[in-house]
Amino acid sequence: MPDLLIELFSEEIPARMQAGAREALRQRVTDGLVEAGLTYGHARAWSTPRRLVLAIEGLSARSPDLKEERKGPRVDAPEKALEGFLRSTGLTKDQLEARDDKKGQVWIAVIDKPGRDAAEIVAEVLEGVIRSFPWPKSMRWGAGSLRWVRPLQSILCLLTTEAGAEVVPLDIDGIRAGDTTRGHRFMAPEPFRVTGFEDYAVRLKRARVMLDQDERAEQIWHDATNAAFAQGLEVVEDKGLLTEVAGLVEWPVVLMGAIGEAFLDLPPEVLQTSMKEHQKFFSVKDPKTGRIVRFVTVANRETADNGETILKGNGKVLSARLSDAAFFWGNDLAVAKAGMEDWRDALTHVTFQSALGSQADRIARIAALAREIAPMVGADPDLAEQAAKVAKLDLASQMVYEFPELQGLMGRYYAAAAGLPAEVAEACALHYKPLGPSDEVPTAPVSVAVALADKLDTLTGFWAIDETPTGSKDPFALRRAALGVIRLVLVNGLRVALNTSVTAIFQARMIMEATDQERPEFQSALFAALLNKNKGDFLGLAQAKSADLLSFFHDRLKVHLRAEGIRHDVIDACLAMPCNDDLTLLVNRAQSLNAVLTTEDGENLVQGFKRANNILTQAEEKDRVEYSFGADRKFADDPAEAALFDALDAAEAAIGPAMEAEDFAKAMAAMAALRAPIDAFFEAVQVNSDNEIIRRNRLNLLHRIRATCGSVADLTRIDG
Amino acid sequence: MSDGKPRSFQEIILRLQTYWASKGCAILQPYDMEVGAGTFHPATTLRSLGTRPWAAAYVQPSRRPTDGRYGENPNRMQHYYQYQVLIKPSPPDLQELYLGSLAAIGIDFDYHDIRFVEDDWESPTLGAWGLGWEVWCDGMEVSQFTYFQQVGGHDCHPVSGELTYGLERLAMYVLGIDHVMDMPFNDPDAPIALKYGDVFRQTEEEYSRWNFDVADTDKLLQFFEAAEAECARILDQPAEDPRSGKRIVMVHPAYDQCIKASHFFNLLDARGVISVTERQAYIGRVRALAKRCADAFVETKAGGWTGNAPEAAN
């Protein structure tokens, strides 16, 4: 069986696109080959800045011969119909077979589809893949119309068997597939021929190209950490940067250089960000001091002077960059020490969102809200308000203008420089968190208060102006903000009636904006339209918005809990219970229910409950009454029935106090204990007895099951 | 090609001129108007449009009023030089040709690390974009390398390859100079040796002051609007010239007005009188002019018009 080797050689492919391109090449080519009737053993793809490579082992040499049968007109159909059929199949009448069909005899054409050589199929598939390749951005070049990520220069496409190698005949807009490639752009630029993958890999390495991106990344990391270790230092890990850098070189050479004395006092985040963003350098830190003291750059070649010139040049560029950073840092510190007044002024002129006012307006709202939230999270209201007022001021600083990703982190330094309390400085850095499902959640009370206030202000604001996420569109990251609120509440075990709080926030917004005489456009943008419709029903409007936002929280919570292994039906069963806007309570309940449902008793209890509930519901519909009168023990004429009375008494006695104490595990355990008596009851008795008194009593008993279980969770929503 | 390392700023320019001349480019002179970048020269903006082949290289003095630093910053100025190469259709060996130009100015690949790092180019004022790279030499960006995909809203067919060298920065690197004003402009052994600062320090100071504090913003605004109106008026003229009876579409005079409008906008920007929201609107107005000029250019012979265009119906 032949092996296939494909190399698409181009001008430099952006590093960030290489992983996707490798996978697309592998997937699309193998899919195409399989669809055309070939099979293969194994396929692997690699990339360098200048090439995408696919090697397929054990490809079938030919696709199988096939016979295709096509049904034609009935034998007695008019001549015209037969003529048409012959034309479409390319056969003559004597080549057709007449076969019996349901409606009589019909003509059948048996068309031989001979198999095709792999080379022919590969050429066809590869051309199709190249012409429709899913690059995030592609281009044309020269006078041609072919599109590729950058000009495609050559194609190597070889089928190799023990007998030798065969070039797949393929010509795409003048690029003819061959068996040659080139090595490193500078160290081994001459073209060379290859006979198959093994030969290719060996010759390529000799020509100073390390084909495997993972091998390049490993080598970079290995050499960098070794170089650092030799000086008692550590490389700051950065997987994204490592992948990117491995995608920028074919022959990685790690070089470590010093950072000028003058810059060592810059915050480590600044050094790290500047070096990474502008130069794609790794940071090297002194573990004893935590400071960044060296950089690692990865060159694409070996040089006669062992990289000395390259390192000198890189150091020079870095100095220029860090001079800028040091300049910003100095200017910013001066503003911070003077009380940050310049930034406060500047933010009155920066629009947050046109209908939601300036950043200064936003900060004022967050500060008021943080003050309200503070007591709920155990924070000092004055500190929370103060923190909220400074937490976003760094948005006006020069450093954050240059490096937006340093927002908050710079705020912490500037708050400290301004002599503000440590809690306030900390809140500057932490109030944006958590930024995603796995990001750290703040627990310091002041930070929690500001983080919640920030996110709730954003959510209620965009809800107020009807800019809510739709489908994949969430330009203001509102899903992330909602998840942030959820995780802040859960991780800190906060007890908040979210619906009440959010309604209050909506009302506060409305009152604030309705009374803001200087900003008529601001009011109208927000609520005027809605207010007209609602004839000034402030509370009703706030409640409607709040209910909508709460269901958004619930949707995000479901996604969050599903990721934590809690079934969606379990969540639904708990969402149907009262106080479902108290997320901590809700999640406790869901976790307990989830746990109990994994036990045999729990699982079977649901069956018993549903059986009881179904019988009861049917009877209620039929009789048009509610059997909630209370069952009387004296009509229990079966021991199993009497036992159920006992069990329900015991369960109710246990569940009531447990629920009171919010001990869901205990309540659920008591509920699960009903499983055996319920099962035994259904085993032993017929609910719909001929005796109407007994029947009614049993229905009333079923109602107790429903009520008892229903006080814990809505089991009707559990699947199965 | 001259051997060894170049010794002055001008030698680097001369070597680039000689190199690209040897590769068949027409060596043009700078455009005689204030522009923000070499791309604005009609030899690039307009000639990248249409089907006719083109190959040109030139130095273009470029002005970016907001970058003025009174001649004090080591590498930031409101006036600097770009070296620009435009070849249409882009030749298959453009990367090699480009690397040859680096070798010509004394960059030895045995000692330096040259990299092509993704950088997509876009000019919102010209309604143009392309894909390519910034070229790094030892971590320093020394050129922009772009395959034009669209200019003035027109798809480029064929595609032009554009190379832009920031001459001062490149020369400082090659010559090992830390502050641009210290860079030898002519040969350091010349009887009257001049440094870059001898030529430009004073003008940097003068223009920085004028750009930032003195330029009359009301006048600039009037000039902007006048240029905008004149550009439109020129393009509104019928194609047939009543005097000569010839078909003369006046693209270049109109495009001059577009360049002027763009520069007046840059000056207004430097004076800090354009707000963030207004900025987009001004850029859009210049782009509208550039687009009209592009539309007109493809209706001229240089733009590939053959006389059979539907316009003949006029």
UniProtKB/TrEMBL annotation, chain A:
Domain of life: Bacteria
SUPFAM superfamilies: HD-domain/PDEase-like (SSF109604)
Gene Ontology CC entries for this record: cytosol
Reaction(s) catalysed by this chain's protein: tRNA(Gly) + glycine + ATP = glycyl-tRNA(Gly) + AMP + diphosphate
Coiled-coil region(s): none
A single BP term in Gene Ontology: glycyl-tRNA aminoacylation
Alphabetical keyword list: Aminoacyl-tRNA synthetase, ATP-binding, Cytoplasm, Ligase, Nucleotide-binding, Protein biosynthesis
PROSITE patterns: AA_TRNA_LIGASE_II_GLYAB
Domain DALR anticodon binding: residue ranges: 609-708
Pfam families: DALR_1 (PF05746), tRNA_synt_2f (PF02092)
Gene Ontology molecular function: arginine-tRNA ligase activity; ATP binding; glycine-tRNA ligase activity
Annotated compartments: Cytoplasm
Top enzyme category: ligase
EC number: 6.1.1.14
Record-annotated membrane-spanning stretches: none
Membership in a protein family: Belongs to the class-II aminoacyl-tRNA synthetase family.
NCBIfam families reported for this sequence: glyS
Subunit structure: Tetramer of two alpha and two beta subunits.
Name of the protein in question: Glycine--tRNA ligase beta subunit
Record organism: Rhodovulum visakhapatnamense
From TrEMBL, chain B:
Domain of life from the UniProt record: Bacteria
Keyword Protein transport assigned: no
GO biological process annotation, one example: glycyl-tRNA aminoacylation
Keyword Amino-acid biosynthesis: no
InterPro entries given in the database record: aa-tRNA-synth_II/BPL/LPL, Gly-tRNA-synth_heterodimer, Gly-tRNA_ligase_asu
EC number(s) per entry: 6.1.1.14
Reaction(s) this enzyme catalyzes, per UniProt: tRNA(Gly) + glycine + ATP = glycyl-tRNA(Gly) + AMP + diphosphate
Gene3D superfamilies, per the entry: Bira Bifunctional Protein, Domain 2 (3.30.930.10), Class II aaRS and biotin synthetases, domain 2 (1.20.58.180)
Assembly and binders: Tetramer of two alpha and two beta subunits.
NCBIfam families documented for this protein: glyQ, PRK09348.1
Protein name stated in the entry: Glycine--tRNA ligase alpha subunit
Lineage start: Bacteria, Pseudomonadati, Pseudomonadota, Alphaproteobacteria, Rhodobacterales
